[in-house]
Amino acid sequence: MCCLGWSCSIPVVSESQALLQGLSLGGSHSCFSFVPGLGMDFLTLFLVYLCFVLLVTALLCLCSGRKESFLARSVTRASQVLSLVIPTQLQRVAHRVAHGALHRLFHTRSCLFVVLHIALQAAVFGEYTWEVFGYCWELQFPLLLLLLPYLLLAGNMGCFLLCSRANPGIITKSNHASLVKVYAYDGVMFQRGTVCPTCTMEKPARSKHCSVCGTCVHRFDHHCVWLNNCVGASNAAWFLLYLLSLTATATALAAITLSFLSHVVQLSNLLHSTYLDAQGQEHPVEIPFLVQHLFLTFPRIVFMLGFVILLTLVLGGYSAFSLYLAFTNQTTNEWCKSRRFGVSHHVSSQPPDRQVVYKNIYSKGIWRNLKEIFRPPTALERKKKT
After folding, report:
1. Transmembrane stretches, by residue range (predicted)?
2. What is the number of domains present in the chain?
3. Which end of the chain has less Cβ packing within 10 Å, N or C?
């Protein structure tokens, strides 16, 4: 259709261009109609979604690597309550199934979490490639910025493979004699002469028997279900790099997605618009309505952003904790055990009836501690130093 002598033409645009052009037609005095109850329903649903993801993440962190996990205790308590109304035979069957599943899930080597790990990364990067990358490209984002998550992903997957496939430092009869000489016994947390009942060998200082892998590991940190492997002296550096690169990847995805949505808000001029409520009254656009509008326009992107932001917070906290352990030359196992003792920076002789004071004798300063992570010491190096 032509008007006032203007020539009419229909340009060929992509789907993303059409959507972005449509968002930018609002103008400074746009008015949106408000669907009654939809904003509150969406915010409730979105908060439930975030709480669910946070709860699942917390449960996985609590359950992994413990002999008696929080989830197992919760199942036991729930079964005690339900025993009042459930028949005895059904209770026994449910108990065997639940505890058997939990044992296989958290206390035996399984590729389930590795597959879940890869599936989550594939889902997030699939959504980023399918929608976010295309929209950002139409908005003329720098190409290097858009490729940054892929570069971080490549580095992360490399660290993941090296850490999961590496020998964490399994103690065998052939290397036991040399590993015993690497670290000194502190006399509190690690006692000389302690024998592992499973491996029937004296435990070197800073080692621990992993019940999941069934072996003693030198400088044992923890068993990671996401890697399906222990973290020990030989792969601690790869684990730290894996964790930092994963945190950087999630942060980059969240930052680019947030930047895209902020561009959308600026193009559509939503912050200067108004909407009509159920009574027909006009109100300025507020944050709940803005989030609702973005969700209705980009539902998959907003859900992905919520997940990635939560992941960034969780991984950021864990990365900070792991760096603290690296700077102070502690392992997760040692940090957890040290909570049972009083911590002191000075060695003092105390009567037997008093609480034992633990002192970290392995810390040698930040730089030497980091060097030990990336270049684990040997018995020969310790002999030269002494």
Report:
1. 42-63, 111-130, 142-163, 239-261, 301-327
2. 1
3. N
Whether residue 198 is contained in a domain is answered as yes
Residue pLDDT, tens place only, 236-251: 999 999 999 999 999 9
Determine the 3-state secondary structure of 223 from DSSP.
strand
Let me know how long the chain is: 386
pLDDT at position 340? 77
Residue 79's pLDDT is: 55
Q: Is the pTM of this model over 0.85?
A: no
Amino acid at 383: K
In a domain, 26, yes or no: no
> How far are the Cα atoms of 21, 28, 260 from residue 139, in angstroms, in the given order?
11, 20, 8
Cα four-point dihedral sign 119, 125, 129, 135: positive
**Is 336 among the residues known to form the active site?**
no
Write the pLDDT tens digit of every residue in 158-199. 999 999 999 999 999 999 999 999 999 988 889 999 999 999
The 3-state DSSP class for residue 341 equals coil
Determine whether 140 is exposed, middle or buried from the number of CB atoms within 10 Å of its CB (0-12, 13-18, 19+): exposed
* Catalytic option among 51, 224, 230, 336: 224
Do 31 and 275 contact (CB within 8 A), yes or no? yes
Q: Is 336 helix (H, G, I), strand (E, B) or coil?
A: helix
Q: Is residue 46 part of a domain?
A: no
Return the closest-CA partner of residue 262 out of 360, 344, 141: 141
Domain ranges, residue 275: 32-37+110-385
